[in-house]
Amino acid sequence: MIKNIKYKADRLIIEKRAFINGAFVKSHGGKIINKVSPVDGMDLSGLCACDSGDIDRAVAAAGKSFESGIWRNKSPLEKKAILLRLADLMEKSRERLAILDTVETGRAFKNYYYDSIPKAIAALRYFAESLDKYYDYAVPPRSNSLAFVTREPLGVVGIITPWNDPLVVSVWKFAPALLMGNSVVIKPAEQSSFSILEVAKLAQKAGIPDGVFNVVPGYGDIAGKALALHRNVAGIFFTGSSEVGKLILQYAGQSNMKKVGLECGGKSPMIISKKCQDLGRAAAVLAENIFYHQGQICSAPSRVIVDAEIQARFVELLKKESRKYIPADPFDANSDVGCVVSREQEGKIRQYIKIGVRDGAKMFTPRATVKINPRACYVLPTIFEDVKIDSVIAQEEIFGPVVVVLVFDHMEEAVKIANNSRFGLAASIWTNDLDEAYHISRELQAGIVHVNSYGDDDDTVPFGGIKESGVGKDKSIFAFDEYSYLKTTWIRFDNIE
Ligand code: NAD
Prior knowledge:
By secondary structure, the chain is an alpha/beta fold. 39% of the residues lie in helices and 18% in strands. Nicotinamide-adenine-dinucleotide (NAD) binds next to helix 8 and helix 9.
């Protein structure tokens, strides 16, 4: 059991400068971001607020390292060894990384230490181990010529990440990008930059050459925008809201038609059929996935679509489950649920709750004593019934511990309700009828569909949405395709008859 987390958090020496060309440097504009921890109001000011000049510096360093071939020309075995070394170093720093993320984002330390950071390390190892088992293609030969198709690095790759799972999302992008031979410039979310700056230090120690791995913190509309608009960036890979995702597409069009990958928001549906025999388990899995981390998970099932015949029973079970997800002190090693990332995010969630009530929905929150610092940002689990299908709380991503209950009489209606969304990240169907499970899972418009489960996850399978949830895939060997382009090479053998 890890002890004295708060004591250690108070004594952290935190790197807040940008990491460019192998060195920690201040923003040349000298600006900083002032902020406090959502856990207890601890002052966290001083993070570099980089601007377009800093982005220019980082892109130039990345471009130079790419042209030199110092990284891209390393063999798969060499790249693999270096990234495995980085994974080992992250493992050794696991406690520190978990504390840094807890301090900045308010998610429970336990989540980071036992779940999120190990997941990031495992993903890094998965990608590193995959590279030398991954082949390019040779086309069936003609009599006097041969064509082969190779994956080539894009060049300088820009990566923009959100705050809700800082290292997992970063690794999902920088690992395949580096392994394909690119040099990267990472712009982390202004709310959560400390752990990736720490990883930059470890990356250098692991042997990643200077200029290949750069981290440039700052505001999205300044540093993020400059990166996405940069003409010397060949690909931009973003995780965040759909609104900013759309801007990223525009920036690519306005500049150099760079390759774009987008992992955006969601409003994922979970359908509960009357043929589901274990409503208790369905309610428990729903509660875990929507209330864990205060609902700040892109693929959280925030719409439950229940057969009218079983609605009352199911909602009672869900209310009971919700009592297990009361926020508690994130620094307490026993807390399962921590805080919301900021006062601003808390305000946004509370505003949606007000809108739900205003629009006539019936609200439930469990009665609970919340043992948490009075300055902490949090929201209690919230369940809305009597929700209109097209209402604001049924359509917009709240990104908080809020679930809306929608009701249907026939399965076709359930599918219509589920697909009546601008998002298409994940979805789920609960039924013990195999035909129904298969048919409905094929009808659901989502990048990931779960049958009688939710949130199952593994590095070996792709993750990503459709519609306004994004384009492209994170994770699995398919991710390598995102960070490379296919080159066809023809060889003519003139001396062969
Ligand atoms: P956000 O869109 O506000 O910010 C994401 C990143 O984009 C941050 O680094 C931010 O600084 C940057 N950014 C903001 N404006 C920008 C601009 N004009 N140009 C370039 N960059 C800009 O999202 P957030 O609030 O940090 O994260 C929550 C959102 O992320 C939710 O919508 C959630 O669903 C989504 N998300 C999606 C996934 C997924 O895999 N699909 C995973 C995690 C989070």
